[in-house]
């Protein structure tokens, strides 16, 4: 098997950030200086399918290994830490998504949760902050097309998407397979005794993100209905 070569991340990243997420436009050093005692950050990406599909979340299964602390076979969302070569945290998030899935970041919707990770089992000091972001990628389409640099690729969102056709390209050195998980699948993970407490805590955060995603869909649906009603009343094409 030929060695894995990291793909080039599409550049430049052009995405409008909500006012609550403008810190993503800063380098990682800015955040670490502003939020001690953390010495590192892990960025996680929550990628959901969009209507008319039933919401599903992209999960990647970690490749097997000999390190008992490496969470081998654990199902996780795309996640990773910023590198010195990343100009901003936003670039780090885009790079992580692209290197692990081959999908292109188009929009950051919101930060759905945070988690403190101990720096080591020996000291127990909390030095790493995990941040989870709900994002949209070009290959899945957007709910709001105006904020995307990839408008010409936004066909799936309007036509309906067979998720099996989404071109997910894994780094097989890190992940062995992917799945589009349903909300009930995560509930089974949480209730199963097969997973350690640390993993089940992350599944709970993912499950909470499902709830937030459904709320966003309901809100945008109501806005679209109001917009269509207003357009109809003015005789404008919808």
UniProtKB/TrEMBL annotation:
Which segments constitute the Nudix hydrolase domain?
38-203
Q: What is this protein called?
A: Nudix hydrolase domain-containing protein
Origin organism is Letharia lupina
InterPro entries, from UniProt? NUDIX_hydrolase-like_dom_sf, NUDIX_hydrolase_dom
Q: Which domain of life is it from?
A: Eukaryota
């Amino acid at each position: 098997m030929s060695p894995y070569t990291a793909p080039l991340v599409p550049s430049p990243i052009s995405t409008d950030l909500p006012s609550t997420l403008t810190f993503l436009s800063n380098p990682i050093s800015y955040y670490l200086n502003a939020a001690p005692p953390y010495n590192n950050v892990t960025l996680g990406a929550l990628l959901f399918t969009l209507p008319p599909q039933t919401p599903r979340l992209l999960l990647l299964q970690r490749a097997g290994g000999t390190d008992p602390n490496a969470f081998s076979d654990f199902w996780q969302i795309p996640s990773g830490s910023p590198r010195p070569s990343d100009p901003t945290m936003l670039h780090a998030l885009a790079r992580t998504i692209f290197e692990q899935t081959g999908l292109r970041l188009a929009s950051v919707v919101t930060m759905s949760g945070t988690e403190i990770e101990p720096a080591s089992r020996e000291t127990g000091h909390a030095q790493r902050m995990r941040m989870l972001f709900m994002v949209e990628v070009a290959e899945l389409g957007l709910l709001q097309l105006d904020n995307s640099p990839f408008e010409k690729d936004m066909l799936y969102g309007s036509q309906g998407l067979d998720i099996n056709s989404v071109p997910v390209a894994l780094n097989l050195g890190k992940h062995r397979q992917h799945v589009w998980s349903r909300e009930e699948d995560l509930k089974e993970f949480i209730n199963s005794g097969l997973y350690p407490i640390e993993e089940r805590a992350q599944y709970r955060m993912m499950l909470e993100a499902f709830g937030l995603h459904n709320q966003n869909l309901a809100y945008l649906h109501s806005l679209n209905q109001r917009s269509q009603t207003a357009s109809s009343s003015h005789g404008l094409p919808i």
